[in-house]
């Protein structure tokens, strides 16, 4: 009857993996958002160059 029984280990691992997945998804979302911002910035700069 120790603390490290299968049920507790599984609960801990599930919680850990859920947190890791959440962190990974947030990182991916930030990268996608940054790509969109950079793309928009580059498009805006190209349009400004042609106006000059």
List the keywords.
rod-shaped, 52 residues, 1 helix, mainly alpha
What is the gist of this entry?
This protein has 52 residues and is mostly helical. It contains one helix and no strands.
Architecture overview:
The chain is mostly helical. It is built from 1 helix and no strands. The mean pLDDT is 89.
Ends apart, CA distance between termini: 77 Å
- What is the percentage of strand-forming residues? under 5%
Shape: rod-shaped
Spans with pLDDT under 50 lasting ≥5 residues?
none
Task: Please specify the SSE layout and strand pairing.
Blueprint: H1 6-51
């Amino acid at each position: 009857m120790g603390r490290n029984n299968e049920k507790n280990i599984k609960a801990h691992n599930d919680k850990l993996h859920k947190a890791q997945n959440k962190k990974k998804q947030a990182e991916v979302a930030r990268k996608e958002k940054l790509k969109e911002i950079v793309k928009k910035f580059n498009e805006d700069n190209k349009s400004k160059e042609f106006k000059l």
